[in-house]
Automatic annotation (TrEMBL):
GO terms for cellular component: chromatin; HIR complex; nucleus. It comes from the Eukaryota. InterPro entries: HIR1-like, HIRA-like_C, WD40/YVTN_repeat-like_dom_sf, WD40_repeat_dom_sf. This is Protein HIRA-like C-terminal domain-containing protein. Its main location: nucleus. GO terms for biological process: chromatin remodeling; DNA-templated transcription; regulation of DNA-templated transcription. It is found in: Nucleus. It holds the Pfam family Hira.
Amino acid sequence: MAGALQKAGTYHPFVIPVSASRFLTCTACEDSSIHIFSNTGRKLLPSLMLNSPVSRLTSCRQYLMAITQKGNLFVWNVQKSKAVIRNESLMTVMSGDDHIVRAFVTADGAPTVSISTHKSFTYSPDLGCWILLYDKQDVIHHSSDHHSCTPPVLVDKPGPLASLASSSNRLGMQGGRIFSVDQSLQQVTTINHLESQMAASLSLQSGSEYKFWLQTYVRYLAKEGLETKIRESV
């Protein structure tokens, strides 16, 4: 990686973000360019020119994600020399004084952006729009019987969906107290939460998390005697 960084410096003196994975090293420069190298210093792609300088640059395996200062998102599969997401605006999910708190790309190329409104999103090329993955302030969501449930095998190394959840469960506890008196509403919110977790896991292409939430969902439906929904899910 050191060789790649030294070589990057020969292309432009004003290097800003730098990102590295096991497969590649990337640098972004003030002239809105991105330079991508192997970890031995070989240039993997021509210099990429974006619409403004990069504010965030992150990579995982063969995937590279960039967010520009104008708020546009790009994701590339460097191994295949292919754009996965092209110039999608974050202004769809951000406004006013909102700012990005965290941004990363998963091992399967799914971008994840968490913003200061305590919401996290991914962009789906298949659906052509942004998808809400997590909303800390969604009281109904946190009223689920399983709002604080986490896949046991992922506790030490959480998957991309689990990593979005706040370590504080104060909001969920308050929601549970508000709705615990109404069992029918508690059932509806729990089902909604579990179905949302499954859909979010699929959007992030997180197979282990999807399997966990599907199993949890089926067990809950069986406990509640909802045979019709069980047949829909299997």
